């Protein structure tokens, strides 16, 4: 027996010296497997996030749940207000079990009461990005399958713009106000104030399983308009457990300044319910208010995207930079240099960089704290959560395959496409009402004949030390200001301007900024001149701020492939440098409300950070 113990000890020591992260890898895998086992148990009993919320309310009814401005909402308050919201929907007679309601509002507590209330009556919600307008708004609403829209009072102008089209489809529209002056639009808050706060019968949601949709969250994906990714109640549990895996505990106070209509923001809300903690909710991210809020609410955990951390590091230094209780930051997209600056300036905050996607079935967490990485690759993790990084042709946007038709795994240090196996425990629900785009995400015969994997649409690389790094996004989508920008949608909008004939939209790197800024190579309509003011006004009216092209390049013709696809690689490589480009270049100038010529002086001011993007 002693001999076997010695052999085992020697084996473990060998593994440790070959891989100093071995024990941490095993420890994290154990936590992840334990979480998976818990979700499996919940699936057998149909125990949802809503059920966990109801139990949490019984356990600590007077504990603060949402801190918003100077308002405090306890778990009991949330229970009663969500009951009231549910009753407004019930009494309207508009909904039946399984229906979806579209929510068009920003960060405010009623967002959460509405979602909880809808699940209580066996329905789901589609979360509309409150920055979308016109054609995009109608598209997103239509693909949700909803027949009811609830919108914030401050978004009534955006609703009025599309109201005729909604009424044509016999859609019922509620505005979150006490009184509404617009004909054919109903007020919601006055009805909610008069509704009963008594608990609702569980029978109203008896048909729900953990495979039923809990919400639809929109993602740009790889092409076209935003797509609605179905988030089942089981997927919501997986999302909720992510912050626990990252190190959150029941004593924490979580600060959410990211949009609730995004996965990241809603993840925080679901995680708070799972751990029974308090959430400090902000209407939106404010660089000047961020640390003041953290101090005011005694925040211990923050969520981020890369841009947030950069904005915070770019503010003037203050004597009280380290006067806070934040111990943990969880998010994605932070650059290595910003990571170092953040820790150096704001103290020993543990940063847990993650990788995940709204519609994805796989995620990574950098539990080791290696600066710049999104996670680790280990044979144990692959064994229980099958995935691979495969070689990928970025020109044709297809995986490379060997002579037998199987995909080829990328070498260490080589960027490749991340794929994850689709299975009962890691399903891919697809996009609501878009079978074609859903099928595009599925890859067959990846590592063996007959297998099925999800194409994440992301390029990652695994280094020799088995740390994994995010490389880039694949296809016609780039990321700017924390948002995915679909180039086809932007091109469609731009070419609505009379003077523009064609547009090829892509993202370009700007020094000092995460992601890529929008740029469009355009050709002009014969006989018309470029109308810079008209183009500015058009993109301002029809595109959210993050999707508006920052740069325009006027060409005599656009290069295309043999199948008439626009060529982007060369344009991306050339960027927006007037020293290298002879075509006329323009820059979106917010102050002049126009596209102004991009001179060498302006280029230098942009690249040096003196002109803010």
Automatic annotation (TrEMBL):
Keywords: Cell membrane, Fatty acid metabolism, Ligase, Lipid metabolism, Lipid transport, Membrane, Nucleotide-binding, Transmembrane, Transmembrane helix, Transport
Gene3D superfamilies reported in the protein's UniProt record: 3.30.300.30, N-terminal domain of ligase-like
Domain (AMP-dependent synthetase/ligase): residue spans on this chain: 57-365
Cell compartment(s), UniProt: Cell membrane
One Pfam family named in its UniProt record: AMP-binding_C
Annotated ranges, domain AMP-binding enzyme C-terminal: 489-565
GO BP, sorted A to Z: lipid transport
Gene Ontology cellular-component terms listed: plasma membrane
Family the UniProt entry places it in: Belongs to the ATP-dependent AMP-binding enzyme family.
Protein name: long-chain-fatty-acid--CoA ligase
């Amino acid at each position: 027996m002693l001999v076997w113990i010695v052999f085992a000890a020697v084996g473990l020591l060998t593994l440790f010296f070959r891989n100093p992260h071995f024990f941490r890898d095993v420890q994290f895998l154990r936590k992840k497997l334990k979480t998976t086992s818990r979700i499996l148990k919940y699936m057998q009993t149909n125990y949802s996030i809503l059920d966990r919320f109801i139990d949490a309310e019984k356990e600590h009814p007077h504990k603060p749940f949402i801190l918003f401005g100077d308002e405090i909402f306890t778990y009991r308050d949330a229970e009663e207000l969500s009951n009231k919201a549910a009753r407004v929907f019930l009494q309207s007679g508009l909904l039946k079990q399984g229906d979806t309601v579209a929510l068009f509002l920003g960060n405010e507590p009623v967002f959460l009461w509405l979602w909880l209330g809808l699940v209580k009556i066996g329905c789901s919600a589609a979360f509309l990005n409150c920055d979308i307008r016109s054609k995009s708004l109608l598209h997103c609403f239509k693909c949700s399958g909803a027949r009811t829209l609830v919108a914030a009072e401050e978004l009534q102008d955006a609703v009025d713009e599309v109201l005729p089209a909604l009424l044509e489809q016999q859609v019922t529209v509620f505005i979150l106000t006490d009184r509404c002056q617009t004909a054919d639009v109903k007020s919601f808050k006055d009805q909610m104030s008069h509704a009963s706060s008594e608990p609702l019968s569980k029978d109203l949601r008896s048909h729900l399983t953990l495979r039923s949709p809990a919400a639809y969250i929109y993602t740009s994906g790889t092409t076209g308009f935003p797509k609605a990714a179905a988030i089942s109640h089981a997927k919501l549990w997986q999302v909720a457990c992510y912050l626990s895996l990252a190190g959150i505990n029941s004593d924490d106070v979580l600060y959410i300044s990211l949009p609730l209509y995004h996965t990241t923001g809603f993840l925080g809300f679901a995680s708070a319910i799972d751990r029974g903690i308090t959430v400090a909710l902000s209407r939106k991210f404010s660089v000047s208010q961020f640390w003041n809020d953290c101090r005011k609410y005694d925040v211990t955990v923050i969520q981020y995207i890369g841009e947030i951390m950069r904005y915070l590091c770019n503010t003037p230094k203050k004597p009280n930079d380290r006067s806070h209780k934040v111990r943990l930051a969880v998010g994605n997209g932070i650059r290595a240099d910003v990571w170092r600056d953040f820790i150096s300036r704001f103290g020993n905050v543990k940063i847990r960089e993650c990788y995940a996607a709204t519609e994805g079935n796989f995620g990574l967490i950098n539990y080791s704290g290696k600066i710049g990485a999104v996670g680790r690759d280990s044979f144990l993790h692959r064994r229980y959560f099958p995935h691979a990084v495969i070689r990928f042709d970025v020109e044709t946007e297809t995986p490379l395959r060997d002579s037998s038709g199987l995909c080829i795994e990328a070498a260490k240090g080589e960027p490749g496409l991340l794929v994850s196996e689709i299975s009962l425990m890691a399903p891919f629900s697809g996009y609501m009402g878009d079978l074609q785009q859903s099928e595009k995400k599925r890859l067959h015969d990846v590592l063996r004949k007959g297998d099925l994997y999800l194409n994440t649409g992301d390029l990652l690389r695994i280094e020799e030390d088995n740390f994994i790094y995010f490389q880039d996004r694949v296809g016609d989508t780039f990321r700017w200001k924390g948002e995915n920008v679909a180039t086809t949608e932007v091109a469609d909008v731009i070419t609505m301007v009379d003077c523009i004939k064609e547009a090829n939209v892509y993202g370009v790197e700007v020094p000092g900024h995460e992601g890529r800024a929008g740029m469009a190579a355009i050709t002009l309509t014969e006989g018309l001149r470029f109308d810079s003011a008209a183009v500015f006004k058009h993109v301002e009216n029809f595109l959210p701020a993050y999707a508006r092209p920052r740069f325009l390049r006027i060409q005599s013709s656009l290069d295309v492939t043999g199948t008439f696809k626009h060529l982007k690689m060369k344009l991306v490589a050339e960027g927006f440098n007037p020293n290298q480009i002879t075509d006329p270049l323009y820059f979106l100038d917010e102050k002049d409300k126009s596209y102004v010529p991009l001179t060498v002086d302006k280029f230098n001011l942009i690249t040096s950070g003196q002109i803010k993007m």
